Write a sequence for this structure.
């Protein structure tokens, strides 16, 4: 069973929504459905894509809004201060930060550009992802649970669980490809040797 939380940051800016004089509405996309490059090894790019149906059965019953995935909670789905819904572009987030003084302070920090991007923490369902060899892309088809959506100050640290989880997934696929390539090369050498021996008779 998959238990490692994964974290993804996306390039889109967080938006502030004016809905009255004392509005503290934050909107953005915690994820998009466009493919994105995760890392590069020896000139080969390895990517990931979240399928539009990935959130269909995900547990989003108590997703919290926090900063950099840590610390205090400023909004949550269980008290209706966060609304989450997938649309054609990705997973849209709408958070109401008006309820507490601390939440309103975070709204001001976001307005001042302290936390320009959005990220989310999640776990993939068992057998909820596949590897497309032709494009070297991991496709996530089913997300099991969404834990939090977070404005972030910096991209996720590759030394955290996100790095471990990605490396585990991709290393297995990369090793399979290497083993198959080596086997093909071995068979070609063996065939060439046989041809050479036959010609020498």
């Amino acid at each position: 069973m998959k238990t490692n939380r994964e974290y993804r940051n996306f390039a889109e800016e967080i938006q502030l929504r004016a809905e009255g004089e004392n509005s503290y509405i934050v909107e953005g996309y915690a994820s998009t459905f466009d493919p994105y490059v995760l890392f590069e090894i020896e000139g080969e790019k390895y990517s990931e894509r979240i399928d539009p149906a990935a959130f269909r059965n995900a547990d989003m019953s108590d997703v919290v809004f926090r900063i950099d995935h840590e610390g205090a909670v400023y909004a949550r789905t269980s008290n209706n201060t966060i609304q989450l819904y997938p649309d054609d572009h990705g997973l849209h987030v709408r958070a109401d930060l008006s309820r507490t003084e601390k939440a309103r302070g975070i709204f001001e920090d976001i307005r001042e550009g302290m936390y320009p991007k959005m990220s989310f923490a999640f776990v993939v369902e068992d057998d909820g992802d596949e590897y497309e060899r032709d494009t070297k892309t991991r496709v996530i088809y089913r997300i099991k649970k969404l834990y939090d959506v977070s404005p972030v100050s910096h991209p996720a640290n590759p030394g955290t669980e996100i790095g471990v989880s990605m490396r585990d997934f991709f290393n297995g696929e990369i090793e399979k490809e290497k083993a198959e390539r080596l086997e093909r090369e071995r068979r070609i050498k063996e065939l060439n040797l046989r041809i050479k021996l036959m010609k020498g008779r």
